[in-house]
Amino acid sequence: MVTSSVLYPRVESLSSSGINCIPKEYIRPQEELNNIGNVFEEVEKDGGPQVPTIDLMEIESEDKTVQDKCREKLVSAAKDWGVMHLVNHGIPGDLIDRVRKAGQAFFDLPIEEKEKHANDQASGNVQGYGSKLANNASGQLEWEDYFFHLIFPEDKRDLSVWPKTPNDYTKVTSEYARLLRSLATKILSVLSLGLGLEEGRLEKEVGGMEELLLQMKINYYPRCPQPELALGVEAHTDISALTFILHNMVPGLQLFYEGKWVTAKCVPNSIVMHIGDTVEILSNGKYKSILHRGLVNKEKVRISWAVFCEPPKEKIILKPLTELVTEAEPPLYPPRTFAQHLEHKLFRKTQDSLVPRKAD
């Protein structure tokens, strides 16, 4: 039995080594183990709350009543859930398939090849191939490897760290990034109007076309021999403004909604969208950044493509917008830069991840 993750710096290596028991660093605290179930059983459960699905085709409708109703649904989902499945989002299905195939092809490479793209978190070089380093007192690890890189704006990319295999990786990822950036503008416009603001207000507050950064993290969750003991990603809220997620149709995403973990179903041709802490703060808590986590399983590798839309780290002070603050509704969050908010969250982890956290 392997007892140290140091021997296996990549989770993929652990998974393929034939172990029957996972190293202790990957075992979650007892209070979490009480509610980690079999993801394939969880996703089949009927009844109970379900992540809302928003059909964006209706937002383009020439019928203003249809258009307004769609906007109301999206705003309602952002306030109630903070997460939704987007369908008819305008990004071609064949492009999404090519993005998935490109990411899969990179992770299909031998680990020695992937290591040529390894990041160096200790020196602050976070782009590239990596695995989670423990950043809490318990030294706990997550059952995933990943590839992280900035994909938009194009003039801020470092293509030297991008995968060279497959050879269309840069082309398809760049095309996806451009279309996703346009989708972000569309969503931010609807969310602005839903707060009674001018259409472009939230976009401006998070940096606009020049400064809003799109960071892609391809999460690779290998098969796990003891999935009831581990998590692919521990419970957290996203610090981004918005997060857009593709996946390979293997379930795993869970949301903490109304005091219970709800497993998201796999909706064909959809993009999952999260409201992040940044928009929660700007909206003074009207929009929700929901606590979520990722389960793993024994049978299937799960891959997700998360794109975090983030404001610049230092240039913008994040605080509730003036128009949304009154005597009756005082500011719920102190002013911080994005970097300060990240730092504030990073070292505030507790053992009890069952308690949902506000984006404070």
Automatic annotation (TrEMBL):
The keyword Cytoplasm does not apply. Residues 212-311 form the Fe2OG dioxygenase domain. Gene3D superfamilies: B-lactam Antibiotic, Isopenicillin N Synthase, Chain. Coiled coil: none annotated. It holds the Pfam family DIOX_N. It comes from the Eukaryota. GO terms for molecular function: dioxygenase activity; L-ascorbic acid binding; metal ion binding. Keywords: Dioxygenase, Flavonoid biosynthesis, Iron, Metal-binding, Oxidoreductase, Vitamin C. Its cofactor is L-ascorbate. InterPro entries: DIOX_N, IPNS-like_FE2OG_OXY, IPNS-like_sf, Oxoglu/Fe-dep_dioxygenase_dom, Plant_2OG-oxidoreductases. GO terms for biological process: flavonoid biosynthetic process; pigment biosynthetic process. Belongs to the iron/ascorbate-dependent oxidoreductase family. This is Fe2OG dioxygenase domain-containing protein.
